[in-house]
Design brief:
single chain, mainly alpha, globular
Length: about 90
């Protein structure tokens, strides 16, 4: 099931990390970051807001891109650009 479109969405800033953007979205929506991630359909696991999937903010995949776009309208390229994987192979 795709997530619903969030009413309050803030655009990612240039060079912003995914986790930072989720945190800003949380402040705008006045709820914890884990709740925003859940509303985006990211399926965080665990009862603690500090528990994140191992690749959260490191690498996106089709599911992450699709659910983030459905919830926020942020396109695939912007989602990918916020993950650390953009630096893979850069020295």
């Amino acid at each position: 099931m795709s997530p619903r479109r969030l009413a309050l969405v803030t655009a990612p800033r240039t060079g912003e990390a995914f986790e930072s953007w989720v945190g800003r979205m949380a402040r705008v929506n006045r709820c914890p970051p884990a709740e925003v991630a859940t509303m985006m359909g990211l399926g965080l696991r665990g009862a603690s807001a500090d528990v994140r999937p191992p690749l959260f903010g490191v690498r996106s995949d089709d599911v992450v891109r699709r659910t983030v776009f459905a919830a926020t309208g942020v396109p695939d390229e912007r989602v990918d650009a916020m993950h650390l994987s953009v630096f893979e192979g850069v020295r």
